[in-house]
Amino acid sequence: MAKDFNVSLMAFVIFLVALPLPQPLLADSPPVAETEPAAFPRPLREKPAVIPERLLKGANAVMPSMIYGLDKLSTQYYIERYTTRSGRLWLNNTMANAQPYLAFIRREIDARNLPAELLYVPVIESGFVINAKSSSGAVGLWQFMRNSMGPFDMKITDWMDERMDFWKATIGALEKLQENHHVLGDWALALAAYNMGLGGVQRVIKQAGVKDYWKLSEQKHLKTETAVYMPKLLAVSHILTHPRQFGLPVIWTKDPQWMRIKADKPVDLRLVAEYADVDEKVLINANRELFYTVTPPDENYYLKVRAEDANKIAVTLARSDVIMIKYHIYTVKSGDTLSTLAKYYGVTVAQIMEHNHGVQPKTLKIGMRLVIPAFKDVPPYQGVIANEPLPAAFTGVHVVRQGETLWSIARIYGIRPETLAIINNMDLQDTLSIGRALKAPIKE
User: Angle 166-184/198-208 helices, nearest 10 degrees?
Assistant: First the structure.
């Protein structure tokens, strides 16, 4: 009898060991629409938190974490807070935002043998909103500042802000965390340094004479935002890897697998999606670092695409029989400037110059034809003379002399060269022959 019991017990243990580990929560709620990180949760107040009795009793029974601190009262406080009705709703929405990126981030973490809790840093940083922007100017899932992105192959141009490139920002953030850990030798301190800067944490350690995150926090050497950073992260990580335990739904979905394809010429993602017959919304959302739906004129830019779409998009990008970007063609008129044209067409002066080799603001010439990216659906620019009335009478005659142009002749009579060209049924680019008679107003 005892032998049979031992055999059954061993079989049960083997069954438990074989069970799959709990997976992160994936909700089917619609993504949060805000461009700012969600207001919830608010920072922990300075006054002592009231820890629920049931959490105090069960604190010693909490499952162990890869990063020390899950049993801390402040962590338990946030576990309680995030599992309220509003807390669960926020987590559902946040993980709906996270769904396109989780598999990629998890793969990068596993490849570097880093703590699994790092998967949830964007929950605390941005609510997994890809274009989140803080009041201090931090941007993206991982909330990079302008002065901190340089070493991690990210840049900001007229075309894009790569802090919103989930691929580059994830790799940059993990490298930054690894660097912090290499210097500080502790993951809690490394994450504190991610929040307040490596130099800031080193100064606090030196001033306090303590090299322990939790002691620095308890002794109030850390600012509030940093003091609650680890409790929040550990609480979120614990809840989302044990959703059933906290009454959260678990929805199994297929995580997208991402690849990168070189786009060595400017292309409009809307046209690429149309010709490749792929989901336009997915393609645009995967490349949210682009200010427009157009890739930059940079041979080193890579589009992020789903693995299932990669072959169709690669074939489409290689086509030479179709134009993958829409342009406005504009003929420069008197009074035009690159800045005026840029403002009207919704581009920058630099972008016009990039598409028109040799064009400079100071060398803009009347009659010059410009290629301008069609980022906005606007009618052709009419110029500053669109509504200018023609002179009442062109009863005079001007005979062209050597060296004269429409511009120089128009100045003689105080009119615009466009007006002179219209009256004489000419184009601004036409060449004037010596001796040609032009209609002109009577010169007073």
Answer: 20
